[in-house]
Amino acid sequence: MRILMLTWEYPPNVVGGLGRHVAALARNLAAAGHEVHVVTRADDETPAPMESFDAGVHVLRVPDPPPVIGFDDLIPWVLGFNNRVQAAAGRVIRDHAIEVVHAHDWLVAYAAAGLKETWDLPVVATIHATEYGRHQGWLPGPMNKLIHQVEWWLTYEARRVITCSEYMREQVGRLFELPADKLDVVPNGVDLADFAVDPDAAAARRAELVGPRTKMVLFAGRLEYEKGVQTLLEALQQVRAAVGPTRLFVAGVGTYSEVLRAKVRELGLRHHVRFTGFVRDADLKLLYGAADVAVAPSIYEPFGLVAVEAMACGTPVVVGDTGGLREIVADGSGLTVPPQDPDALADALIRVLGDDDLATRLVDAGRTRATDRYDWQAVADRTVHIYGRAAREEQLLRQQLARGETDGPRPLRPRLRAAPILELDDAS
Fold first, then answer.
1. How far is residue 240's CA from residue 348's CA, in Å, rounded to a whole number?
2. Percent above pLDDT 90 for the chain
3. Please, are residues 362 and 332 in contact by the beta-carbon 8 Å criterion?
């Protein structure tokens, strides 16, 4: 198939798991013989060619339109970005006879809807997370409500909607009142070859970071409230008291960074916690390989790619018992704890760090689960099947509309309304 992907992040510009997911999916689709084009944003901090071919994937990066609006002014930035994306994507569609547009999350919704209307193409949307979920079941301000409504609009415009877990399928279907047969579940994947860790290189990296008797705990991910790092910090002193010297490495960036740094100072942990900032994939896998345990203490987690990556690297995992993490860490492949429970998290970490046999069992089970369930080629094959279904459904609907055989809403210029739960401020 001839596929066009829209995404606000793509390597080397990677903020969280979305960019790495899109890149891996695109590469595996290209490796299977499909023609893949990606339109994404250019970023001065992680410069890359404006147009390139990466592992068979055609990547177009668009600059900010003038006058340049800072990313902190999110909604105006999104509108300007989508204007550039739609223009660049339109040229790709014109020149390459694209068959399907795949939109990743709400930040490209405006461009996806515009391309659908202009070029009569089916849109497949992957909802990687929801604003409602990120804020634990409420929408605290006008911008949150707007983002929520754009998410709903994207799922309305899309011919098929993909979620990364059964948990997210249930949430997206309920929040946006979608028919069950419009939703598909395709888990994120991991390329095991990309996460094959050289034991000597990992050992050398560990020696640079901690002493021979110090335990190494790793968190990797965006620094946001819902990721639960604050709970991990609250658990750390108990862990140190039970197992001895322990150092926590926090790899990532995000809007909650300064709050977490302040909490480290408040808890007297400045000598036991290191914030690494953003870590590129090559060094991230060395950190996984060097760590005694990887922790994902999330409060809200649509999928939990870091858990799969840690498993692939041969690192035992402890995760919050929530969302997609609950589906990943099963059958003895890791330990789960209630979110926001520092005592339970400390107990789980103490068990892993103090019991080598348990850690070995978790590593073996984790590697097996990552291999069996999260192979990227299987993910790509499933996604192509959904593309084909979307194209057939779009064609059938347009034929029915042309013959006057349906009274349903037209695929263009839908009757807009507020998202179903837009006015709710409290958890449902």
1. 13
2. 71
3. yes
For residues 275 and 262, the answer to whether their CB atoms sit within 8 Å is: no
Contact 425, 132 (CB under 8 A): no
Sign (positive or negative) of CA dihedral 93, 94, 95, 99: positive
Domain of 284? Answer: 193-373
CATH code, domain with 155: 3.40.50.2000
Helix (H/G/I), strand (E/B), else coil: 5? strand
Task: Collect all residues with Cβ–Cβ distance below 8 Å to 107 and sequence separation of at least 6.
Answer: 8, 78, 81, 82
Is residue 297 a contact partner of residue 227, using CB atoms and an 8 Å limit? Answer: yes
Predicted TM-score (pTM) of the model is: 0.76
Residue 244: left if φ>0, alpha if ψ -120 to 50, beta else—which one? left
pLDDT of residue 297: 97
- pLDDT tens for each residue of 264-299: 999 999 999 999 998 988 899 999 999 999 999 999
The reply to whether 239 falls in a domain is yes
